[in-house]
From TrEMBL, chains A, B:
This is Proline--tRNA ligase. Catalyzes the attachment of proline to tRNA(Pro) in a two-step reaction: proline is first activated by ATP to form Pro-AMP and then transferred to the acceptor end of tRNA(Pro). As ProRS can inadvertently accommodate and process non-cognate amino acids such as alanine and cysteine, to avoid such errors it has two additional distinct editing activities against alanine. One activity is designated as 'pretransfer' editing and involves the tRNA(Pro)-independent hydrolysis of activated Ala-AMP. The gene is proS. It is found in: Cytoplasm. One of its GO terms (molecular function) is aminoacyl-tRNA deacylase activity. GO terms for cellular component: cytosol. GO terms for biological process: prolyl-tRNA aminoacylation. Consists of three domains: the N-terminal catalytic domain, the editing domain and the C-terminal anticodon-binding domain. It is an enzyme of class 6 (ligase). NCBIfam families: PRK09194.1, proS_fam_II. The lineage of its organism: Bacteria, Pseudomonadati, Pseudomonadota, Betaproteobacteria, Burkholderiales. Homodimer. Residues 33-478 form the Aminoacyl-transfer RNA synthetases class-II family profile domain. Pfam families: HGTP_anticodon (PF03129), tRNA-synt_2b (PF00587), tRNA_edit (PF04073). Its EC number is 6.1.1.15.
Amino acid sequence: MKASQTFISTLKEAPADAEIVSHKLMMRAGMIKRLGAGIYNYMPMGLRVIRKVEAIIREEMNRAGAVELLMPVVQPAELWMETGRFQAYGPELLRVKDRHDRDFVIQPTSEEVITDIARQELRSYKQLPRTFYHVQTKFRDERRPRFGVMRGREFTMKDAYSFDRDKASALKSYDTMYRAYCAIFDRFGLTYRAVAADTGAIGGDASHEFQVIADTGEDAIVYCPTSDYAANIELAEALSLIAERAAPAQAMAKTPTPGKSTCEDVAALLGIPLASTVKSLVLATDEKNEAGDIVKTTVWLLLVRGDHALNEVKAGKLPGLKGGFRFATVAEIEDHFGCKPGYLGPIGLKKPVKVVADRTVANMSDFVCGANEPDFHIAGVNWGRDLPEPDLVADIRNVVVGDPSPDGQGVLAIQRGIEVGHVFYLGTKKYSEPMGATYLDENGKPQPFEMGCYGIGVTRILGAAIEQNHDERGIIWPDAIAPFTVAVCPIGYDRNADVKAAADQLHDELAALGVDVVLDDRGERPGAMFADWELIGVPHRIVVSDRGLKTGTVEVQGRRETAANTVPLAEAVAFVKGRLKA
Amino acid sequence: MKASQTFISTLKEAPADAEIVSHKLMMRAGMIKRLGAGIYNYMPMGLRVIRKVEAIIREEMNRAGAVELLMPVVQPAELWMETGRFQAYGPELLRVKDRHDRDFVIQPTSEEVITDIARQELRSYKQLPRTFYHVQTKFRDERRPRFGVMRGREFTMKDAYSFDRDKASALKSYDTMYRAYCAIFDRFGLTYRAVAADTGAIGGDASHEFQVIADTGEDAIVYCPTSDYAANIELAEALSLIAERAAPAQAMAKTPTPGKSTCEDVAALLGIPLASTVKSLVLATDEKNEAGDIVKTTVWLLLVRGDHALNEVKAGKLPGLKGGFRFATVAEIEDHFGCKPGYLGPIGLKKPVKVVADRTVANMSDFVCGANEPDFHIAGVNWGRDLPEPDLVADIRNVVVGDPSPDGQGVLAIQRGIEVGHVFYLGTKKYSEPMGATYLDENGKPQPFEMGCYGIGVTRILGAAIEQNHDERGIIWPDAIAPFTVAVCPIGYDRNADVKAAADQLHDELAALGVDVVLDDRGERPGAMFADWELIGVPHRIVVSDRGLKTGTVEVQGRRETAANTVPLAEAVAFVKGRLKA
């Protein structure tokens, strides 16, 4: 294609509201154009990338046996009421009434609609397993849309849904999708990690996030460099850092720590390691009667080592807490501990409190904790001797770099990632049972579908790819999803017949080989021309100049290369083709 | 592809709410599935057709130099307020408020958004002309959605918009799109007609509808079989059927016509041709002051020949009526004519009335019209002698079959059509001027863009194609947009190794040639298998049977053919390939 046949519109400066590099570069490269908060026009350069992303997704989904269909953007609320999501979904769900005052939603996902299709179309076990997918516009009314396509309101998602007769088959479907996702992200040419993720209220053990690695990512990814362990921070298991509890060596001693309400301050004051302190976090759970009134409140004290952080997802899975918890109020804390927050600890409680110790804390000796008296801590505390064993010992903290890997194969590292895909085993509870979506088994008995759901944020891929691949000059697209793979940049296209002939020939030969090549016929000066293609991020460039042609050569340069390769004109096509990833 | 890899779900009976054949067949063939009123899931067989339609549209749009982008489904209302469409658009515009109570619309078209893009991106005359397009989900909240995809609420449309510096250039862009549309509909393989259409309030003379010809179409298309004249019924010009007014031959005579209030009844009673009668239609126009109060009402009498029908679009273009008119009330009629409707005429008016005669009526002599007296008509009426010449003579009627063609090249015929595309010259008044969308001309002076808009109803194409191409067994897709081009139907695929080998080979060889072929490996009985593919409308079928293979042959049958062609197995691929439209 010639550049004049498409629409190129680059900017020197990014608009002020663009906070992160991918947003800035997409705006500057003319890939997106803001229409409203979190709502973007996809301009020709951006749409070309989207189409390549979608094509790869479709090929791999089809190869994996998933069947494409298309479900509507505007969906009747009735279906969403069947699963309770119409009521339960927060203001992120865009609700709309039609001219007859009937309720509709602008779909953020399509579980209800696909389950409605399945309950009508998949009547027999003979029709299972079955995975459907679509690539469709979604809308989530984010409270604070930002970061361009990374947290937009309208976006394109590929969502797939599997229907199986039993859990074993569902996990096979899950695995097929997992492998398809790996194939997709491999083909994108992005560095990514599939990490185990929490399954939340669904339970079960099959949930993986596909994270594109980028320092700017919002998510923390835990992995073991010497094994294949990988999980997100919510899920990654923290082992005890102390193999066995040592015998007490110190006497318990109340110590004044005036104004020192954090473990860091206390450790500094006392001149002890932070790892000798214990942090107290107070939660509460409420028991309600049928009328919804609170009939009983239980207060919980969760203890993690001073250098560790509470993991609320893990806490939320503990017996007694998994029905939902909240942080205790100051009044509740003072009532149970006789002290304001900042000096709390497990010793000298005024009312019964459930004490949960992190695995590491449970093995600590001679530790320091709050004295439940303002401006005082207690040192030399020991389980058993100074206070009863904790009610519960559990993994309730985030892992940190250097923790032992749960698979015993090394120590953990942490990197940042951007979640662009998610595969999830749903089971029967969330959609098929409430919607009465069943098939008939061999005995003619109705059984609820075992379901899975699988999403890829198509438009988000663009942002993640750029966060991972850019430099000070602009975007560096992987070959497979670049808006163009090769840019032919002739110097003097409109005034030098030799340059024009060579550039045209290179373009035509590459195009004939199926290479997505653009010929810059806009007549820009070399500097501006090169800057445009570097900003847009085309991975391969061929410069055709009169000077080069005098020696029968052109210059080929990869977007990451600092210098050009001088290549004979006659070999340029083969040279470039050899560099392209299949 | 193997049939087991996609999803085929056919029905014996269409649901009761499917009124027209395309809706019935799309439901029965499992192409669409109703989700709500006018909202459909596109099932795999239907989506395959949509993708082929979209691909052809994209190729031809790109070839014509249009550049694809993608504008959002959810659009901020502010832009729609700039053109006044937010206020003026009726309840068909789906309006929605976000979590911050801001107004949005679910787009029915994208003129405002593209004009917003143009006013930011197209700053100089050097960037013109420019045509953008997108293929995107649209929503129109039809009062009475019906006919499946023909009058749905959510649908896919390709909409293109051209921006030019002046009208001459805009008409060139229009012509380019017109020719691209012809190429698109040619490639679809549908019988269609591009017909001149009314430009409504925009004025100007460039508006064409692309109508797929079908007896069941809602639109009347006027054309001249011996020339290239074609227009829709709203626009088609009606010449006078009487070259010159003859001298009066009869005396005027009031005639009792008790209870005969229609021209047909009067002609029958008096034993005269219907073409000797004149029909009276009474309109009214209101003049308002600045406060919006009616200060003056004018009553109009429009006269068409008894066998003709008033064309309201034409009437709406007359001086004095083009500001908007309404039908007069019975009170206004009695006040001005001294008579109730049914016996009205241009003679003996009680108050001033503007009389408009159709061109044919103006040349009639000795005609019959109402006497403005209940149960009486007047015969032998003549202009000039019995009443003043009309205030205005104009084309205010629909043409009828046999009328002279306006181009003087023959007589007019009428056929039915389904509008699936529309090209429209917009000028500057509707969008670029109200939105302040300007470019700088050679003198650095801002000028409003001359615009055009161009739509194709992607999903509607499916309905129109089926209305035009079906039989009692199902759909008959043209090759180019069929869900599959060829179905290989083996009899005993799962139990006869020779049949399986031959079928696999045919499938693989055709697929290798780029033919979109499906191999039915579902193990259905021949009757059910053939019925499915006939219902789905695959245009070419190859039956592989043990009996045929015994003589080294297979049976190839086109969907419209009544008998199969026995073809040697070795020649079958070439035979089929030779039948396919490029």
